[in-house]
Amino acid sequence: MSQAAVAPVLVIHGGAGVIRHDMTPPKEKAVRAAMTQALQEGYAKLKAGKSALDAVASALTVLEDDPNFNAGKGAVFTHDGKNELDAAIMDGYTLRAGAVAGVQRVKNPILLARAVMEQSPHVMLSGAGAEAFAQSVGMPLVDPSYFRTEERWQQLQKALKEDAAKQPHADVETAKHFGTVGAVALDAQGHLAAGTSTGGMTDKRWGRIGDSPVIGAGTYANSGCAVSGTGWGEFYLRTVAAHEICMKVTQMRVPLKRAAAEVINQEIPSMGGNGGAIALDAQGHISIPFNTDGMYRGWIGADGVPHVAIYGDEDDGTAEMPAPAGSIAQP
Ligand code: ASP
After folding, report:
1. Looking at the domain assignment, is residue 323 inside a domain?
2. Which of 61, 78, 174, 180 is catalytic?
3. Residues 6+ apart with CB under 8 A from 305
4. CA-proximal residue: ligand 1, atom 4 (nearest)
5. Most exposed among 219, 274, 309, 331, judged by the fewest C-beta atoms under 10 Å?
6. 180 is catalytic
7. Measured in angstroms, how far is the CA atom of residue 181 from the centroid of ligand 1?
8. Rounded-to-integer distance, Cα 246 and Cα 126, Å
9. 204 CA closest ligand 1 atom index
10. C-alpha of 13 from chain center
């Protein structure tokens, strides 16, 4: 494959599940601004000739630092009132990957995941061990109170009341697991990368770990496909969703949009799950399927203009998107 003419692309998500009546104009404005900034910062890396990994890490750092997303600051609370953060990153070119689960004091879990990939012999570290590793590579730790926001705290109080009343969680598809962040990128060398960062699900217990930090489930990239998922993690784990999409694309030659739709809009709902994903192939084709009312999503490509959308009935500009100039036609 000729590498010279590849037009870089960055696609991000800020979680599936949003419903219009839960949004306020100030929140919507803040979310759109943060998504735009994440796209611009990540894309600047790609334009400067940096790697897809750099773009993914930079976009996700912006979203982790923004309290409107369920990742880094603003993460959801566990049943015990803590924030336990999960993240993963994968380099499609080398198939190297790094992940962390259940960390409570790392400001940017996506950067720690990358450090695990680049500076440890392992792929996945958890809890106190992951934090000890963070310190060993000079990553400063923050007080756990850094992650707290009042909105997330109130979501936990609501879930705890529902637990006590033995009510089913009416919001299990929405607020409980909403706001995870993810990114997939294609760089000028034609290399792909994927990353995901989350606080998981409100009211999670017993050290629950979702799909986001599990390579193949919520996060996966190879030489032809990169995916970051968001949704009810147990179902993404059981379908190995991100890997499944990429295997369809790279092994079975299924076009990206169809592959992603088969997993997100058929396999997962048929089992009772829900959510969405962002997917990107090595030709720059984008797919953003979701089966919830909305999904925070955005992309930026050859024209350098950030495209951001929230609701299901909002055009995100990917449907009629032409393949980027200089790219190879999709099989
Ligand atoms: N998939 C994440 C989890 O289950 C949550 C989300 O994407 O909103 O931990």
Report:
1. no
2. 180
3. none
4. 233
5. 331
6. yes
7. 9
8. 26
9. 9
10. 6
Q: Is residue 317 part of a domain?
A: no
What confidence tens digit (pLDDT) does each residue in 1-26 have?
444 568 999 999 999 987 777 788 99
Tell me the per-residue pLDDT of 162-192, one tens digit each, with 9 for 90 and over. 888 876 655 444 455 578 999 999 999 999 9
Contacts of 292 (CB under 8 A, 6+ apart): 16, 17, 18, 173, 174, 231, 274, 275, 276, 312
Instruction: Assess if residue 231 is contained within a domain.
Output: yes
Would you say the CB of residue 15 lies under 6 angstroms from ligand 1?
yes
180 lines ligand 1 (CB under 6 A): yes
For residue 16, give Cα distances in angstroms to 33, 51, 97, 141, 312.
Answer: 18, 27, 24, 29, 10
- 132: domain range? 3-311
Question: For residue 121, what is the domain's CATH number?
Answer: 3.60.20.30
169 CA distance to ligand 1 centroid (A)?
16
The one-letter amino acid at 309: A
Give the residue, by CA position, lying nearest to ligand 1 atom 9: 200
Q: Is residue 77 part of a domain?
A: yes
Tokens coding 201 = 């699900």
How many domains in the chain?
A: 1
**pTM to 2 decimals?**
0.94
pLDDT digits (tens, 9 = 90+) for 22-79: 788 999 999 999 999 999 999 999 999 999 999 999 999 999 999 999 999 999 999 9
